[in-house]
Amino acid sequence: MLNPAAVIPNPGVAAPEPTMVAVFAVVTAPSWALPISEFLDNRVLPMDETEARQIQRRVSAYSIINNELVKRSTTGVFQRCVEQDKGIEILLDIHQGECGHHATSRSLVDKAFRHGFYWPTTLQDVESVVLKCEGCQRFSKRSHQQASAQ
Fold this sequence. Notes:
The chain is an alpha+beta fold. It has helices spanning 4-7, 34-42, 49-58, 84-96, 105-114, 122-132, 134-139; strands at 62-65, 68-72, 78-81, 117-118. A 4-stranded mixed β-sheet has the order 1-2-3-4, covered by helices on one side. The longest helix has 13 residues, at 84-96.
C-alpha cells in the first residue's frame, strides 16, 4: 500500500523540473574489424591499396545491426563479431563448461559459429585450447573399438 504522504506533494515545496537526458550507446567493433566497420559507417578505406581491395571484397558479408558489427555466414545466420579474448572465453565455456564434452577442434568451431559468434582466428584459437586441455591430451588416443573383429 502506498504512503499517502508520498503521493500528495507538499504544497509549500516546488516540484523539481523534469530534465531531458540523452543516452548514447557506443558499441565499438573488434580491433580486427575496425577497417570493415569504418567502411560500412563512413565509406572510408585505408590508404594501402591492397588492404583497401581486401576490405571492398570482404565487406559484402558484414552488416551493422543495432550498432553491432555482424557477419552473415554461408548459411545466412548472422554472427556477432567479437574480440579474440572474448572468443577464447566462449570456446573454453563450450569446451569445459557445464555441458562441456571435450569435443574436437572442428566441432568446437562449428558450435561457436552456430551460437552466433565470429572472429577470424577461431580455428587457431580452438586448436590451442584443445592442446592445453589435460583431459583431451590424456584420453585422445584411447581406442573405443573392440580388440578383435567378430
